[in-house]
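User: Assemble these into one structure.

Assistant: Restating your components, then the assembled model:
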Amino acid sequence: AEEGTPPSESLRDEYEQLADLVRKYRYAYYQEDAPTVSDAEFDELYRRLEEIEALHPELVSNDSPTQEVGGEVSAAFTAVAHLQRMYSLDDVFSLEELEAWVRKAESSVARLGDSVPPIAWLTELKIDGLAVNLLYRDGKLVRAATRGDGTTGEDITHNVLTIKEIPRQLSGSGYPSEVEIRGEVFIPSKAFVEFNEALVAAGKAPLANPRNAAAGSLRQKDPAETAKRPLSMFVHGIGAREGLNAMSQSETYKLLADWGLPVSPYFKVLDSFEGVLEFIAHYGEHRHDLLHEIDGIVVKIDDFATQRALGYTSRVPRWAAAYKYPPEEVHTKLLDILVNV
Ligand code: NAD
């Protein structure tokens, strides 16, 4: 199909079928914590959907899967509105695509002139877990919620209170009167293996993978069940912030750590794309020596003024991107064996 010409009947059909399939897979992944296809398969379908939409923007509607953050609020939980929206991330699947993304971001920033500093890339691991939003008022944890559709999430406060890394009360002083802290809840790789060994020894079925195990554990009705699961958390973002004095995200991480929040030990602030490439190569090699599973690397423009100037699309920030490592065959096979024990 050529850009500008109306989509053929068969392309329209393919598009509708793809959109339905993506919705169905998202439902299994987000609502049931039990995906029916691999992430790589899902990403490929999603990519194709984006491709068709790029050729035929007239097909895009408000309820297109590309226009929304995946995940609805289950009726089993109380719905809560986030003070500030939560977003997804723009995905890239090759180093060439990442470079194109970086160059585009650089020209957008160049257009901002001297009002912003030169780009520093806050480069982090993309933790394969569940996004959670923590709301602190006067230093006290008052609410925790899943991302949901980005605007409204599920209230999981009681379950989050069972995670020892998450402080009920922020320490020190100088924390804002109201602040939303975003991060990823995950099951550490070693704890996951041990937990599964114990399940198998007790004659029970092991959990399929750490990501869905973490999501399923956190979305339990009974916090006592959640408390039995080895959940942990790293924080990687900030939403509403009343009176926070920080110029950049990395500066904020220092504050978060001072307040007792679990900041990842793995991030780096890099001033060049070459540095980012080295980071990617390093963690590609050491992917399985880490505390948790990763599915990629996230690069963010560190400076808050630049983040504000670039803003967001309906689904993702324009100042960050996620590079996804190629899927790992061997690893998947190992997991299949484990599931079939
Ligand atoms: P995403 O996972 O690609 O990226 C956004 C999320 O990354 C954020 O919400 C955040 O919680 C998380 N994240 C982890 N580390 C981060 C860091 N350091 N900084 C910032 N954010 C970080 O996007 P998505 O919309 O949540 O979901 C898409 C993902 O889910 C894809 O990987 C896709 O393969 C998978 N998925 C799979 C299926 C399936 O059926 N297998 C279905 C739906 C989605």
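The CA atoms of residues 102 and 273 lie 8 Å apart.
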